[in-house]
What does this fold into?
Amino acid sequence: MAVVREAVAHELHGATFHSFVAPSSGSRELCAWRLEVAGGTAGVEHRVSREEVVLLISGELEVAVDGVPGTLRPGEVAFVPAGATFRVDNTSGDAATAWVTTSVGLQATMPDGSSISPPWTR
It folds into this structure.
């Protein structure tokens, strides 16, 4: 069915990833999820293997792409190129919500060199 009404929730690094579109739900090319970041959450810098687009829906997020910081406000988009380092922090006291899209197979390389293959991209 083309309408997805229920997401699968995953928790990682203090954030919740509500997966709507992924290979596990029938997609062959795209992944999309709603990201919820609680207020006061410090993210973990990681290097992404695929492009990502982050559209902020509510709240405010501090983002850094390849070390370049910026503040993301509702309606604004952060574009993360493949191979870039990326970090998301919510320094406010309020939760923030974003819609994120990428392509199937995204992996994240952590600062210690370990790699994560998030379930919302498989």
